[in-house]
Amino acid sequence: MRRPPLTSIVLSVLLCGSSAEAQAPVPGATELPSGTSFLDKHLSLAGYLRVRFDVFDNFDLDHGATPTTGRPLFPVPTSEDGSGPLTSANMRLRLEPTIRVGMGVSIHARVDILDNVALGSTPDGLPANPWAPTSAGSTRTTPPEAGINSDISSVRVKRAWGQVVLPFGTLSVGRMGALISWGTGFFVNSGNCLDCDLGDEGDRVALTLPMFGHLFSFAFDFGAIGPSSATLGAYPQAFNLDRRDDVLSWALVIARYDLPEVVERYRRAGRTVIQYGLLTSIRTQKLDTPAYYLKGDREREYGPKDVVERDLLAFAMDAWFGLRVGGLTLDLEFAMLLSRIDNASLVPGLELLQRVTGRQLGGVARALYDHGRWRFALELGFASGDSAPGFGVRSPQNQLTSQPGDLDGPQFRIPGDTTINNFRFNPDYRIDLILWRRIVGAITDAFYARPSVRWQPLRGLTIWSALISSTAVEATSTPGGSRALGLELDAGATYVFDPGFELRVMYGVLLPFSGLDNTRLGLAAAAAQTFHAICAFRL
Predict the structure, then answer these.
(1) What is the pLDDT of residues 84-93, one digit of tens each?
(2) Which one of 80, 131, 340, 518 has the fewest beta carbons within 10 angstroms of its own beta carbon?
(3) With 0-12 CB in 10 A as exposed, 13-18 as middle and 19+ as buried, what is 124?
(4) pLDDT digits (tens, 9 = 90+) for 244-275
(5) DSSP-assigned letters across all residues of 129-189
(6) How far apart, in whole angstroms, are the C-alpha atoms of residue 519 and residue 530?
């Protein structure tokens, strides 16, 4: 069986996020255009509307307050006794248009409307007004507006980039999706899944070249530029006020892989498919202007007194190997982050002379076996840890230190602790419903094992179940001072009615172990459970 044309592979490869899945060949692209027909624009639209429903029961595990912040492991009801489950209903309309302007030229975008907006969160009584002085008097909902009745606006443009297939490769420029589209997604994740919340975006210039049966990609990312002329309000086109405080990244990607539909055809033909990829990246920052992002003051002017000598250097590597043969699918992926910061101070004029370093390692091994209507899977994962108290996933901004018993907190404290070694999985990489997804926020400082089984009794109906065993790498990171974290059992069903509608229901229960106990108060962690449902309409 022949491989698809090389152009179609390049078009759907790196740096194009989820839009690659929605692309289709330009009609007549293989024919010589006559007149100006090649300038005709072709618009395609992908995306979905999803509405999610959740019940969170005892996600604080009856643990009580953590010592540094005085907060529970997870928010509890605001009423005085703090008992009872929490609930959620939220929605998102995602639109991903692709405009093709003939001869391999295309423009792409990702626009999220009412992005994860909680249903009922913007009544016309927020803020109170003469028509609705109280929430009980609200008779309608109003659009979310950042700074008025919501933290975000109704429409969020997350990606917009252009792409052209040149005679020697593919050039992509703009704000686009994940740097790579291969691998398991635990390190770089496009956020394309129906239940994803975030997704990796980057301001990037990238060139992908097909050579020697592989794809070579060279990318330059504008991570952050610091204060710009937009703070002065006098120039219609914003420009960078100092290039030395920029966070810049350079990346090289080498990969050999096929599109999923091509792999499936090979498997049906009895062929073995071997795929692999390697990502290397360097990030640098010479100076920094902490007041610009810590205080959020973008109206003032910045000068030498606001600058910190940062001298940051970081190196990232991600390697993936995939094997597809018969009903067996095997994925092995390993990632490493090495970094140093010569001056970690956030206060201009105050230098921290001790260098802060990081060595973070993570990996996933996953095996799937399809046999008729059944799929059996086993996944093993590892994320390096740090000996500092707390997991270090999403430390509160005002928390400057951590102590034993904390769920989260900074992973370094000068002068005694100058290392940050905990590897964080991408938060959109989910293996469970409760512990890592909700309570901790992302996988870090852990070993886990996840056997699962999936059964398709009827066309369009899939039933699955998974058991997740989690153990901490560093006992000092856990609230209970023990490596044993817990055992979680999750199960669910998916019903697809026509390609345009999908319903998912899930239930999970977490049995916490001693690593989640409150040893200060002598409280043993109690079980938590959840219900999660998704109602989706796909374009």
Answers:
(1) 899 999 999 9
(2) 80
(3) middle
(4) 888 999 999 999 988 888 888 888 888 899 99
(5) BTTBSSGGG--SB----BTTTBSS-SEEEEEEEEEEEETTEEEEEEEES-S---S-SSSS-
(6) 25
